[in-house]
Specification:
single chain, alpha+beta, Nucleotidyltransferase, domain 5, Actin, Chain A, domain 4, Leucine-rich Repeat Variant, six-stranded mixed sheet, 21 strands, 57% helix, globular, PUM-HD domain-containing protein, hydrolase activity, hydrolase
Length: 1171
Amino acid sequence: MAAAAASADPVVDTDVLVCDNGTGFVKAGFGGENFPRHVFPSMIGRPVLRAEEDLLGDVELKDVMVGQEAADMRRALEITYPVENGIITNWDDMELIWDHVFHDRLGVDPAGKKLMLTEAPMNPERNRKRMVTTMFEKYELGAVQIWWQALLTLYGQGMDTGVVVDSGDGVSHVVAVYDNMVIPHLTRRLNVAGRHITRYFTKLLLLRGYSFNRSADFQTVQEIKEKLAFVARNPDVERRLAAETTVLMENYTLPDGREIKVGRERFEAPEALFQPGLVDVEGDGLSDMVFNMIQDADMDLRPTFYKSIVVSGGSTMYPGLPSRLEYDIQQRYLKEIARGDEKKLRRMGISVLDPPQRKHLVFAGAAYISHTMRNSDAFWITKAEYEEMGVDRCVGNGLALSGDLVLEALVVLAQRVQRLRQRVLGPAPPVAARLEDAQLAAPAPVELGLELLDAPFRREKANASSGIGDLLTRAKRIWNILREKKTPADKRRELVAQLVELVDGHVKDLVMKHDASRVVQSVIRHGTPQAQLAVAKEMTREGMILDLAKAKYGHQLVVKMLRWGGPEARNLVFKQLEGHFARLVTHAQGAVVVEMGWMRGFTGAQRWQMEQELFGPAFRHIQDVARGASGARTLADVLASEQSRAAATGPAEVQSAKRARARVASALFDTVQRAADKAVLGLTVLHRAAADLFIASHGALPGQAAAAAPLLREAVVALAGSRDGGRAACAALGYGSAKDRKVMCRRISDHAAEMAEHEVGALIIARALAVTDDTKMLASTILKPLGLSDTVNARAVAAMARDRAGRKVLLQLLAPLGSWLSPAEKEMMIEYSVPVKQRKADKAAAKDPAKDEAAAVAAFDRATGGADEAAAAAEEEAEAELVPTSKKDAAKRAEELLEVAGPAIADACCLAAPRMIVSGPGMEVLSEAVWVLGVVGGDQRVLEAAAEGCLAEGGTTDAEEEAEAAAAAAAAAARSSSTSAGAAAAASSGDAGSDSDSDSDSDSDSDSDSDDEPAKAAGASDDEEDAGPGPGSDAEDDDDEDEDDAAAAEGGQEEEEEEEEEEPVPETASAMLELPNTALFIKKLLIREGKMEGGAPAKGFAAALLRVMKEHGPEALAAGLASNRGAFSVLGLCEHAAVGPDARAWVKSNMDVVKAAPKCKGKAILLKKLA
């Protein structure tokens, strides 16, 4: 083993120096090394003010500070970067960096040694010549070689052909190499890389309220980025996840000890690599650059390039970047080239290689090849050749190598790469590549590089040619002052007036441009109502608002108008969009506008008109609507009124009303289907549409409701963002087939813990538990993520019980559909029935998933099939026989679920009974748990814990809690089988305190409604991800309220009530008994025991409470009688049917304690009863 390790170690050649000059960092070392010996920032620092040196303590400022030294003291220095976008722009500073490399870092005298330098693609020839001249004239090196970074990246992988995606700190490149030859006309450059992402990250953190505006803060943000940032495979899904949950939220401790929270910024910042417009850079992102470049290559080269895409550079180290790059390229190929043929996509074998050492892959390739060719004079530009031929001829000819030299180098490189992979990743297959007749072409100077250097100025040239260049320049100067927070109000008003005067008459020319649109937006944001109205009127005159609502940049102006504009401006926008809402709501940019109008911009009456467009043309023919009833109403009100009117008119009108209702449902179905296809069901306006779809279908058209359920099954988590969405999700669970419920439960599984913390999400989980027959699947997809399937998560279950939302999940398990539901929630939890014909269609779809969507569409086609009265009558007759959507008996389902979750709930009660009692939601859960698991189920541990909790003194420490958790786990292992059986049977007992009724006539032979479904059908939907353009994906604005806009545009969750602060456990038992919660808890259980059939139990809660009080002695009785509420609790024990005589005897034996107790009404009644 030692010999093998030794053979893999690199042979370092100190006579060969390697220097990789990057925009952000310099990597330096010796030939033959696998990794750079020194890595430091490519920066130069000079003191700003010598007078401030006293503030730095013992730190001494030099006249010039280089590299890491400058980075550490950047708060006191003026920082310059000699390399910009991969090209040296400041040669004096670059020489200081080279001095630092040779003398301070490597500690060598460069004279007479060989040096391997790297250069970025498109490096001008004059730069290459100057580098060679400097190395020979100033440093007197013996030999020099300059190599393109893309070639070295491939050599580091033992390859000679491929596409290199190199993203460092200052610039990103995509370079094509075929058979050791760089193809210059295919090279692409993107001026977005690490430092731009860091700046964008800083901006995003500023929007969250964290200011990092000092020079020294740049490094702090860079560290946050490197630790927390990642690339999202589907940004729209991550945005919805960030808006609806807290799963992406991470804490980060700053150097000063403060802690900040970082959420959606983690993936939004690196997204700039794929959407450069986010950082004001025009052009394609990395994925599009790679795809377009390969498609521009010769047809014969494309298959090779698609299979050999290699990423390198520090900015490719973000988790998820290689898979995102591969996914984007595959999707574009599938759509544009393969035309949807997945077999063709698989044959192409598109692959992105992400070697683990890719951060320093360029250096590794340079070190390998320089060490391998150290003795070959043909490889190097020697000093003798430089002095004899001059720099022009040396640079022109020095890079041309023979095929034999390249063959020798690549063979050695392949061996080195294989050994390195074995050390990092374990054994790997040998590198197989054709190396015969290899020729390495010199990267000749390319004029194209000079053209791309001019790319940042193209936008200004285009503006100048369009005639608005001077206007836009002046407007942007004003805008830059206007957007500053520190601008005084008077100055701001003056600037807005100037800006309004400038843009007047030019709004049409400005709003469609990315940079110019922001200028007009600032008029809306900061202008007076008159200025806002003037802009709105100009847009209205031009008929632009509808086009703007669909435009990539222009839609942001409409969003700002709806958010900040006055009532008159908003009305103008509404009138322009009226009649187009049904289409805009599923448009990538239009959906952002509609959502802002729905959430903030439109009045109630306007929102009602917007809804009516989603209902389709048939809705306008409903007589109550046709009469023009005023005021904002709801679909349920209109349909109920129409049904009453039709019933009073006659059978013909009833049929007509039913057909109109079916067409309304059909229109809503089309809208929801389009939204589901585009994965934009996170919008709250679409939540309302989905809820209205079930309102239109419920009762009269159950077949349509059942056919709509499959549309929402993939978006059940997104629907938890609003109450309308919650209603739609609960209805989909109620009407859906077994397959629909299985898919929804699996989608909930990934976010179960987050959903249980929100009112709507918890209700959706409770609905799933109430209607899903497959209890084994529920145990694995919902109960397990919530910690309810075992006894090791008692602390988490106890916390859930004390949560106002989380309690609903536990109460559904303990008292299904009980009195804990509000009237509105009970309406959402009712049991539905569907036609027998629909049930058969569901089973057929389960056997043949390909027919699933066709069956859903066909259901609506049947209901809206025209004016054939005979067909309508036959359809109505076919739908007459209804069956429940759930086949299993409700009591049996509850019993099976409680058998799984009961032990975990019992352990949570034993662990935190006092804390649960003092908490309102927790007391409710504990009360049901004591009743179901203790009184009815016979679990004495729960009864004892609840009784002890009523007399608890002071809060428990963390150590005590851990000991209690360990004890609970040990007790769970020894739990008797009779206790488990009793707990499981509790759900089926007749509970006077529960409102659940189980009158199901369904079959009891089947354990699961989904047992007959093929595993393939279930698995096909598990791996599906929401895809498609999401609203707000291109939204970008510099205003301080960007995050609020994005949250509104993406259908953010409704604002939740602030959680009440939990009361601590009182210090004394008397104070505990005096709490209203404790008194109510004891009273509720004693009354329920008194009402039990067959009499109060002898071993119930009352017996446990009396036993605990006796164990505590007279002090417990004194504590009980110390307050009026406590005295009534003692009185309840004395009047209990089972333990009353024993309680009275105990109290009489301690009459001295009773007499010494304070006077109160409860004590007086107790003494009267005892007498």
